[in-house]
Amino acid sequence: MEMLSIEKELQGNSYPGRGIIIGKSKDGTKAVTAYFIMGRSANSRNRIFAEEGEGIRTQAFDVSKLEDPSLIIYAPVRVLGNKTIVTNGDQTDTIYEGMDRQLTFEQSLRCREFEPDGPNYTPRISGILHIENGKYNYAMSILKSNNGNPESCSRFTFAYENPAAGEGHFIHTYKSDGNPLPSFEGEPKLIGIPDDMNAFADTLWNSLNEDNKVSLFVRYIDIATGKYETKIVNKNQ
């Protein structure tokens, strides 16, 4: 698979929607994840990321302007022991609770499907990072309608064992802007992952469409110790 430039991928797409990146730093010592949200409506843009425990939660920036919270207020990141869960919706909780009951990542998502926001039927994208005894693997999932037909749900899981240093994968909700919004197609895109967390966060934030970007979360986890560093960027400050 060709390695793509994350800058070009983001700069060339005004509305990828919400995106998850998971991979390993170039020096091979860090498990890396990033999650961003974008918005076209005032309700979607009226958000920030706030830390909650070891994870984060979306919050209304101006509570007085909050309209429908059902699909925009959720915990995108939660930590369950040596597992870090990253998703674009409240399926974070579904995965957390399922894996806490010894279900697999894929089994936990069996009870969920794409978002009920026709005609877009936004895909649910999810990722999980697993670090144990100095070993690291990750998986990504997308649940999407069948080419816009809400009668059928297509389920795809991609698992990456012992990922290569300096490589990561990027999945996002929408192929591009549009009405209705076309769902992401294909497998997660191969991209490069640098060692410097702050530089990577800056690259992602500066490459996202200025009008539509809302918030960004980046975390680098030391594979040997489990300790992590996090950076959050909110357009609304």
Question: What distinguishing features does this structure have?
Answer:
about 240 residues, mainly beta, Glutamine Phosphoribosylpyrophosphate, subunit 1, domain 1, 6-stranded antiparallel beta sheet, about 40% strand, globular
Summary?
The chain has 237 residues and is mainly beta. Helices cover 15% and strands 41% of the residues.
Question: How are the SSEs placed, and which strands pair?
Answer:
Layout: H1 6-11, E1 19-24, E2 30-38, H2 42-45, E3 47-52, E4 55-60, E5 77-80, E6 83-87, H3 91-100, H4 105-108, E7 124-132, E8 135-146, E9 149-161, E10 167-172, E11 189-192, H5 197-207, E12 213-222, E13 228-234
Antiparallel strand pairs: 1-2, 1-10, 2-12, 3-4, 5-6, 6-7, 7-8, 8-9, 10-11, 12-13
Low-confidence stretches: none
| E-strand count | 13
CATH class: Alpha Beta
Q: If strands are numbered along the chain, what order do they take across the biggest sheet?
A: 11-10-1-2-12-13
Q: What overall form do the CA principal axes indicate?
A: globular
Main beta sheet = 6 strands, antiparallel
